[in-house]
Amino acid sequence: MEFPAPEKAERQRTEREALAMAGALEESLKEHTHALAEVSRWKAKVAKWALAAGIAAVLAFGAFGYTLYEIHSSQVDACHIANAARLANVRLWDHIIEVSKPPPGETPAQKAQRLATIKSFREYVHNAFRPLDCSEIYGSWGRWLY
After folding, report:
1. N or C end: fewer C-beta atoms under 10 angstroms in the chain?
2. Distances (CA, A) of 78 to 31, 65, 108, 134
3. Under a CB-based contact definition with an 8 Å cutoff, are residues 129 and 87 in contact?
4. How far apart are the first and last CA of the chain?
C-alpha cells in the first residue's frame, strides 16, 4: 500500500527520529555500561586494598601483642636473675662473717659488742638483699589478657 506523500514524509521523519533516539539510547547504554564496569573495577580495587589493610592490621596487632608478651617475659626473667644475684650477695656476706676471726685479746665486752654488730649487719644484709616477689611486681601475663 502506497502512502500519500505527506504521510510518507511524516512516517520517514518519525522513523528517522526513532532511529536517532535508538542510536542515542544505544550510546547512552554503552556509556552506562562502561561507567558500571569502571565502578566494578574500582570496587574490586577498594576491596583488595581493604583486605590488605585488614590483614596488615591483624599482623601488626598480633606482632604488638607478641612484643608485649616478650617484654613481660624478659622483665620477669630479669627479676628472677636479680633474685639469684641477691641470694649470692647474702651468701657471700654470710661466708665473710663466718670466716672472720675475732681480734686477739678480745674482752668479753668487746666480744658482746662485736656479736651485736655482726647480728645487726646480718639483718641489714638480709634486708637489703631480700628477694623480690616477681609475680607481685610484674603480675602474670594471663591477667593482661582479660
Report:
1. N
2. 69, 20, 46, 9
3. yes
4. 91
Q: C-alpha angle with apex 120: 116 to 125, nearest 5 degrees?
A: 145
Q: Which residue has the higher pLDDT, 84 or 28?
A: 84
Is residue 146's pLDDT more than 50? no
Between CA 64 and CA 67 the distance in angstroms is 5
Cβ neighbours for 73, distance < 8 A, ≥ 6 positions apart: 141
Single-letter code of the amino acid located at 94: D
The per-residue pLDDT for 52 is 93
Task: Tell me, rounded to whole angstroms, the distance of Cα 117 from its chain centroid.
Answer: 53
What's the whole-model pTM score?
0.57
Burial level of 125, CB count in 10 A (0-12/13-18/19+)?
A: middle
Take residue 80 and report the three cell numbers written for it. Answer: 628472677
